[in-house]
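> example.struct
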């Protein structure tokens, strides 16, 4: 399977870099000359104003207000291979669609393919309406897992080939929800990796995903480097040793951990096209995208994204 955003290979350092890796990561890698390398292009390499998440992806809407720029959100929704709304996330999506119609007179092309969750917070009349539209209703009653976690399982159960799963949900409101959502990146990592599916979390103007142990090269568009866009590395659950290049505030075998150092509100070295990271544990990477609605107002984008249909 070809993945456009993420490429994983076995990376071999040239001899002049091998000693550097062994010195800084002697405690974490016994064979530092050969380990996984991940190359990331989170934004379109040509335009820099579109997400670059592969051709085959699913979109999942969580129960938070949708603050992603309208044109971008509709483009992502219309081109997804699978669309799923999670419990009251269904109402959030309908509210977004109503606002879209009010703001630009456009209506959304496609209904959700699946509505999932324990359905305790979804208005019964809306659930019935979605059922009448032909949406698949997947009631997931397991109270030991969140609706988000269970919805990831629903996507995997569909047994369709995907490059990625794009989760839409704001990092706002209740702190326990924020931490719980980050936790799902860890608890579903093995499940998704077994299917070669990468999960990303889109919240307003930010994109977040989980980095595995190894070497990561993240390509940063010039416009983000020019405007000093923010980025961060968040060690959740365990400490992580990090060495970096391409950041304004680089780390050299720095130990990141809650209760210690956390790399928040970092930005980029404007002269470096990529951020390179060596990490010995799983860690969260998050970055601002610099997306604004005025990036998506061209008539060509409008014609492709806002087609006519009714809920």
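> example.seq
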């Amino acid at each position: 399977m070809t993945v456009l955003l993420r490429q994983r290979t076995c990376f071999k350092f040239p001899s002049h870099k091998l000693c550097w890796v062994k010195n800084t990561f002697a405690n974490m890698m016994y064979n530092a000359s050969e380990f996984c390398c991940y190359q990331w292009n989170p934004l379109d390499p040509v335009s820099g104003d579109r997400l670059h998440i592969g051709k085959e992806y699913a979109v999942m809407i969580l129960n938070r207000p949708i603050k992603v720029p309208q044109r971008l959100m509709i483009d992502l929704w219309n081109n997804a291979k699978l669309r799923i709304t999670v419990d009251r996330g269904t109402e959030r999506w309908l509210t977004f669609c109503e606002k879209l119609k009010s703001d630009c007179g456009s209506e959304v092309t496609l209904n959700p393919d699946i509505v999932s969750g324990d359905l305790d917070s979804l208005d019964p009349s809306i659930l019935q309406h979605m059922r009448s539209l032909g949406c698949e209703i997947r009631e997931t009653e397991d109270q030991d897992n969140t609706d988000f976690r269970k919805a990831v399982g629903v996507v995997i159960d569909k047994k369709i080939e995907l490059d990625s799963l794009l989760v839409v949900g704001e990092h706002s409101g209740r702190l326990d929800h924020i931490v719980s959502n980050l936790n799902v990146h860890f608890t579903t990592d093995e499940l998704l990796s077994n299917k070669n599916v990468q999960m990303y979390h889109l919240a307003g103007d930010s994109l977040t995903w989980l980095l595995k142990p190894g070497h990561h090269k993240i390509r940063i568009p010039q416009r983000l480097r020019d405007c000093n866009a923010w980025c961060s590395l968040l060690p959740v659950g365990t400490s992580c040793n990090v060495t970096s290049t391409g950041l304004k505030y680089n780390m050299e075998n720095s130990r990141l951990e809650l209760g210690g150092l956390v790399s928040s509100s970092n930005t980029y070295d404007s002269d470096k096209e990529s951020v390179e990271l060596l990490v010995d544990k799983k860690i969260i990477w998050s970055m601002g995208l610099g997306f604004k609605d005025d990036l998506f107002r061209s008539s060509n984008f409008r014609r492709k994204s806002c087609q006519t249909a009714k809920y």
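> remarks
Residues 89-104 form the longest helix (16 residues).
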